[in-house]
Amino acid sequence: MGNKEALLAGAKTCLLDKGFDRTTVRDIATAAGVSMAAIGYHYGSRENLLSQAIFAILDEWGDIAGRALIPAGDDATAEEAYIRMWDANLEQIRAHPRMWLVSVDLFMQAQRQDDLRGILAAGMREGRSGLAGILTSTPEEDVTDETKRTVGMVQMALMSGVAIQLLSDPENAPTGADILAGLRGLVKITE
C-alpha cells in the first residue's frame, strides 16, 4: 500500500474513532504510518482527505446497509416486507453505529463547505431514487420524479430520524412494526 492509500485508510480509522472535527493531521499521519507532509502532497489538506475518507466509508457501508433494504422475494405481504426491511435496517444501525455517526458528521461538515454540500445533495437525490425504487419494486430508472420526491424522501427522512433516535436512546428504539403503526397513526390524523 502506498502513502496515498495508507493516508485514506488512516483517515477512515480516525473518522470512525474521533469524528471529523477531532481528527488532527498528526492523528491521520500516525494511523497511516507516514509523515504529516504527505497529507498536503497527496490530498492538499486535511479537510480534502477527510471528505474523501467520509465518502469512502459511506460507499463501503452503503453496500452492507443496502442489502438490508432489499425485500426478501417470498410470499410476504407488503406490510410484512416493510416491517422486515425496517427490522433489518435497525439491526444494521445497531451493528454499525459509527457508520451512522459518520453520515451525521458529513451533514455537519457540508453546512460549512459548499463543495461538500453539493456532493451531499447529489448523494441524497440518488438515495431517494434508490429507496423509492426498492419500496415500489420499480427499476430505479423507471421511478417517477414525484415518487422520488415523496416515497423516497419520506423513507430517507424516517431512516435518518429513526437512526438518530436509536443511537441516542437505544433502550426505547422502535421496531419495524412500531414504525409501520406510527405511519398508520399519522395517516389516521389526516382522515
From TrEMBL:
Listed GO MF terms: DNA-binding transcription factor activity; transcription cis-regulatory region binding
DNA-binding region: 24-43
Limits of the HTH tetR-type domain: 1-61
Coiled coil: none
Domain of life, per lineage: Bacteria
InterPro entries linked to this entry: Homeodomain-like_sf (IPR009057), HTH-type_TetR-like_transc_reg (IPR050109), HTH_TetR (IPR001647), Tet_transcr_reg_TetR-rel_C_sf (IPR036271), TetR_C_31 (IPR041583)
Keyword vocabulary terms for this entry: DNA-binding
Protein name as annotated: AcrR family transcriptional regulator
